[in-house]
Amino acid sequence: MATKDVPPRWDRKMQQRLARGEAAALGELYDRFASLVHNLAHRVLGDEKAADTVTREVFAHVWEHPESYDPRQGPLRSWVAGVAHRLAVQRLRDCETAALPREAGAAEELERKVRRASVAARADFIVHSMPAPLRAALELAYFQRRDYRQTAVDLGVTEDEARRRLRLGLQLLSTAHDAGAPPGYGGAV
């Protein structure tokens, strides 16, 4: 069993390969995390082209600064997601600041929009990161409007297990509204 201070072997090896400048490592990292990065950026920005740009920027940052990943802070996936989130939010702020007139409430409106986008991106990250059984239960309840009894039948589990999965999934999802850190962990980009 891995301890909190020891990242998965793949994460450590990937960081070492990137630090050595192995282009194949960047390709592997891109294959593994590009959809995550793009989805997070699109969720924040609501624009396909802007999400494409942020995706390129994230992988350029990873290539140029592999040492900025600290394995003790968490998995490489979380770090990449955090970089994506920060770059997407920064792009949103830059675009909105340029587009908004210099009114008294413009800055507050921009911050509300950034907070909404951040919560949405965090919720998306949480849903895609949670274990498949929890995600399946939430998808049945939310998208197919199943109650816990129907969810239990559809999943082939007891009603108590269906309720447990739904409760835990919703508890995880509720953390998206926390004012704390975005997906990933802190640190400068």
TrEMBL record:
Give every RNA polymerase sigma-70 region domain span: 29-94
Say if the entry is tagged with keyword tRNA processing. Answer: no
Which residues are listed as membrane-spanning? Answer: none
Please name the Pfam families in this protein's record: Sigma70_r2 (PF04542)
Sorted keywords for this record are: Sigma factor, Transcription, Transcription regulation
Nucleus listed as a keyword: no
Record InterPro entries: RNA_pol_sigma-70-like, RNA_pol_sigma-70_dom, RNA_pol_sigma70_r2, RNA_pol_sigma_r2, RNA_pol_sigma_r3/r4-like, WH-like_DNA-bd_sf
In its UniProt record, which GO terms are filed under biological process? DNA-templated transcription initiation
- Which terms does the record give in the GO molecular function aspect? sigma factor activity
Tell me which family the UniProt entry assigns to this protein: Belongs to the sigma-70 factor family. ECF subfamily.
PANTHER family of this UniProt entry? RNA POLYMERASE ECF-TYPE SIGMA FACTO, RNA POLYMERASE SIGMA FACTOR SIGZ
NCBIfam families in the record: sigma70-ECF
According to UniProt, the name of this protein is RNA polymerase subunit sigma-70
Q: Taxonomic classification, please?
A: Bacteria, Bacillati, Actinomycetota, Actinomycetes, Kitasatosporales
